[in-house]
Write a structure and sequence with these properties.
Layout (H helix, E strand, L loop, with lengths): L5 H7 L5 H9 L4 H12 L1 H6 L7 H11 L17
């Protein structure tokens, strides 16, 4: 199967910068591996319940890259300065 193209990545991950897109393409992953990585990021519970092993190889690398794009939910917002 062919490696990802820039268009493939942009269709799948619209909010990625050029460096991230290049990292995804450089991983050598396929569109199937990108879809698997996105499925793990979207909701891993159903995949685990199916007994699927955790993502490995290029799919795991994509999970790591794509997870950097997601906002951190546990990080507190900066305080808002009072207005005078």
């Amino acid at each position: 199967m062919a490696s990802l193209t820039r268009d493939d990545v942009l269709k799948a991950v619209g909010n990625a910068d050029d460096v991230t897109i290049a990292r995804i393409i450089a991983s050598g992953a396929t569109i199937t591996e990108l879809a698997e990585a996105q499925a793990w990021l979207a909701n891993d519970e159903p995949l685990i319940n199916e007994g699927r092993p955790l993502a490995t190889g290029r799919a795991r690398e994509l999970v790591d890259i794509l997870s950097e794009l997601e906002p951190v939910e546990d990080e507190p917002s900066p305080p808002i300065a009072p207005q005078e």
